[in-house]
Amino acid sequence: THFGFKTVNEEEKESLVGRVFANVADKYDLMNDLMSGGVHRLWKDHFIRTLAPSPTTKLLDVAGGTGDIAFRFLDYVKTANGGLGNASVTVLDINPSMLEVGKKRAATNGYSTDSDHISWRVGNAENLESIPDNTYDAYTIAFGIRNCTHIDRVLKEAHRVLKPGGRFMCLEFGKVETPIISNLYDIFSFEIIPTIGQAVANDRESYQYLVESIRKFPPQPVFRDMIRSAGFLVVGPGWEDLTFGVAALHSGYKL
Ligand code: SAM
Question: What is one GO biological process annotated to this record (predicted)?
Answer without folding.
Answer: aerobic respiration
